[in-house]
Amino acid sequence: MSLETHEHHHEPGCGCGCQGDQPNPFEELEPVLDHYAAIPGSLITVLQKAQELYGFLSIELMRYIAIETHTSIAKVYGVATFYTQFRFEPVGKYLIMLCQGTACHVNGSKQVEEAVMDYLNIKEGETTPDGLFTLNNVACLGCCSLSPVMMINDDTYGQLTKDKVTHILAELKETAGNDAIESITQEVTA
Amino acid sequence: MKIIIGAGSCGIAAGAHKVQTAFEAIIAEKGLDLAVEQTGCIGTCYLEPIVDVVNDGGKKITFVNVTTDDTRRIIEDYVLGENELKELQISESDITMIGKQKRIVLRNSGLIDPERIEDYLAVDGYLAAKKCLTEMTSEEIIDTIKVAGLKGRGGAGFPTWFKWDAAKNSPGTTKYMVCNADEGDPGAFMDRSVLESDPHALIEGMLIGAKAIGANEGIIYVRAEYPLAIIRLQNAIDQAREKGFLGDNIFETGFDFDLRIKAGAGAFVCGEETALIASLEGERGMPRLKPPFPAQKGYWNKPTNINNVETFANVPWIFRNGGDAYAALGTAESKGTKVFALTGKIKKGGLVEIPMGLTLHDVIFDIGGGIKQDKAFKAVQMGGPSGGCIPASLLDTQIDYAEITKTGAIMGSGGMVVMDETTCMVDMARFFLDFTCKESCGKCTYCRVGTTRMLEILNRITQGEGSDGDIELLEELCYKIKDGSLCGLGQTAPNPVLTTIKYFRNEYEDHIYHHKCTAKSCKPLLTYTIDAEKCVGCGACKKNCPVDAITGEKKKVHEIDQDICIKCGKCFSVCKFDSVIID
Lengths: 190, 583
Fold this sequence. Notes:
The structure holds two protein chains of two kinds.
Chain A (H helix, E strand, L loop, with lengths): L29 H8 L5 H12 L4 H10 L4 H10 L11 E6 L2 H5 L2 H12 L12 E6 L11 E3 L2 E3 L4 H28 L1
Parallel strand pairs in A: 1-2
Antiparallel strand pairs in A: 1-3, 3-4
Helix pairs in contact in A: 3-4, 6-7
Chain B lengths: L1 E5 L2 H5 L2 H15 L4 E5 L11 E4 L5 E4 L4 H12 L12 H8 L17 H6 L4 H9 L2 H11 L11 H10 L6 E6 L8 H8 L1 H15 L3 E6 L4 H16 L4 E4 L4 E9 L9 H8 L23 E5 H13 L1 H5 L9 E8 L5 E6 L4 H8 L9 E6 L5 E4 L9 H6 L8 E6 L4 H15 L5 H18 L7 H15 L3 H5 L2 H20 L13 E3 L9 H5 L5 E2 L7 E2 L9 H5 L5 E3 L1
Parallel strand pairs in B: 1-2, 5-6, 5-9, 6-8, 10-14
Antiparallel strand pairs in B: 1-3, 3-4, 7-8, 10-11, 12-13, 12-14, 15-18, 16-17
Helix pairs in contact in B: 2-3, 6-10, 6-13, 7-8, 7-10, 9-10, 9-11, 10-13, 17-18, 17-21, 18-19, 19-21
């Protein structure tokens, strides 16, 4: 069966990661696929929406998109791996995006990166074993006057120093710890 | 009376939202009738968060570097009292920084609320578009741009009228107007600021351009790293559509034009026109051979015109004030103004818009206030990864496309990164090569493999393992990559290396032959020793050394074992007596 012509009915061995009679694991993506089916050249947008929904692009997810958009998985994988925005592994609760722009470099982003790596004991692109933090280097975030800069999820932090960055990470760790305790307590009381 | 808070990305990162929340809490607590509004970025990023308090008579006082603690004082002492809090206000010298500029692109930035179309209309917004659509022909519009002498602000500096004319003359009824807002140059944020602070100026510029070339559909390709810009732009598009400035039969002229946003996914090469088009079509963003040019065969093989954000933002002003007024600014070859993102080791970093023809010295020292901590100026990097480093001896160079090109750098999109004596120029070259090497799309062998080989050589040199002949090998590779690459990325990638070799060859030689980094930046080339005269034997360095390389008894001079030392610099940062010497 060719991937290009395969109409998807979710059956055993259909290749999208579903188990045939089981519900489609990527059901939430269906409206997105329906919406963009009529707009040619929308593959990147579909991948962006998929990443928004699932956090990263798994092989199963890319295969599903390929089938639904009547294209080859090679094409989907080729486009996804070309752009730095796309991730292929799960990310931590906090995604650290460390700016590697020129202004940040001149003002010491290397030292900040070292401090993050020291504190979390991970390298660029890795996630801490507890699933809390992922460290990614990114090209310029465009906040050059506040360099060195990083973004954690949607928040931007500027004028970083070794001490400041360690302090920020420690605070997030504590918040996450408290959240966890709270949810356990809630479960117990429930 | 109202309070206006600067809420661009920089302002928000500096705490604008927290300041706004604090103001709202105090206003609610005291039951005051006081509006809190927001505006975009005024450009003086080093003063963020910036708060304007405007009284009913229109008198405006600007408070800078406002903290949440300051908000209470501003309300209690100034708004409710008589104290103008001089110590929190913007200083005279900072007002001068803004005063020396000529703001055309940034005319509304930091003054209007970017989320309200009414604010843009109040400053004569969309009147230029109305004039173009109702009173002018395509030829007349293009002619005005020609008189103005506007050149593409994305970097290459190609005359805008020429591109518009080519797209207009291309046969076909379906044409596209595209805005390149994929500002990928690290160290530049001019376009982000326009998108966040004055999105309607871009929309109006695109509408005028669309009328000139006969396009009914427009696309703005924005970096995904600019979430706030995308939100504000989408909001502006929706408002413009509601008011009838986008859509069918605009100004009842029968002309239709609509706009949509396409978020990029992170690829520097997509700044190149043909790569951008490939990306718009959902493909890998790889450039192709020109001709055919986009004006002939672009998006879906239809005639397409692509300009950058700043170029479009100039357009409405030109039609409000005339092409001649624009051409009156600048030099013989470079007209109008240019926005620069002034960053790095500069005292007053931010966005500045200046008439062409000022010197680099004017921008860095008169407007930017000189170098942080009054250190020695070493170089200014212009044009990002495609540009080069201009040394102190050429500070009198005029801001002009041709003059900047003569130095080996390029005008570029407007990144201006200032470096001082502590910046190592070999490391800077390595930094840019690392960037272009990662961003090369891989299509051309010289660009793909050549930049990798160059990066390896530069890595070796900065690690103290350079060898005789490395400089010559770098130069040879530079020229081959320039000749052997299809697009601008490869053709310009060697520029940072070539300019640093040209102006700072001694630094390369110091690294290779003397294993010395004069800027004291390349760690493998440094040695840390303890000054016996200054050391008091406090033990702080010994305690903090991660590899136990430091020995010494309490109150006696300590010593660093060079064989164990990993050059982490911890001892240097913890010593309170400046007794650790880096050499």
